[in-house]
Design goal:
It is built from 4 helices and 8 strands. By secondary structure, it is mostly beta strands.
């Protein structure tokens, strides 16, 4: 019997969980239990006991300038974002474009840029947006949903092979100057294995 946990690894890397083809084709192994034991069954922390969580950040902006950075949410590198939405009221009177990306987090809120448009590149906020999906508007695809953040960073600007055990900020960066005052909301569904 193939167990749910056989599809996930204990090291958190879901794609390498079933390294032994005998698990996928049980008749290749002496017994299925032998094949299961060889791969080390177990469910990674973020999958097996994770809870679907929700974060919401709201901010009012007034005449934002190009390269203004809004740090909206903080996540641990092992958290797994499955949905990311942005809503705006379309108030700015000129074309307003933003990138949605990721910076390192620190207590002074001035961590370094990691990937400015990991989640979305040149997103227009000139018109009102109601829960516009922005997870796949940058370098990520739907196949990256639910991956630990450190793995999604490997798709983008970094080449990580293990979880760095760091905090990251999801940020909105203005790419154009804008006139007027407007409201922005960023929402995320994610799982965390604590």
């Amino acid at each position: 019997m193939v167990k749910y946990s056989d599809h996930y690894s204990t090291d958190g890397n879901d794609r390498t969980a079933i390294a032994d083809p005998a698990v996928l084709v049980p008749h290749m192994a002496t017994t299925l239990e032998d094949a299961t034991a060889a791969t080390g069954p177990g469910v990674s922390r973020g999958i097996g006991h994770g809870r679907l969580r929700y974060k919401r950040s709201f901010i009012s902006v007034n005449n934002p300038d190009s390269n203004d950075v809004l740090r909206m949410m903080t996540f641990h590198s092992s958290d797994r974002i499955s949905a990311l939405w942005i809503s705006s009221d379309g108030v700015p009177t000129t074309a307003t474009n933003v990138d949605v990306g990721i910076y390192t987090h620190n207590a002074a809120h001035d961590g370094a840029l990691v990937d400015v448009d990991l989640y979305h590149s040149t997103l227009s906020l000139e018109d009102a947006n109601d829960r516009l999906e922005c997870f796949t508007g940058g370098v990520l695809t739907g196949l990256n949903r639910g991956q630990p953040i450190w793995e999604t960073l490997s798709t983008g600007a970094l080449s990580l092979t293990t979880d760095p055990d760091l905090l990251y900020d999801v940020v909105i960066t203005f790419t154009t100057d804008s006139a007027g005052e407007g409201d922005l909301i960023l929402e995320a569904y994610y799982s965390s294995g604590d």
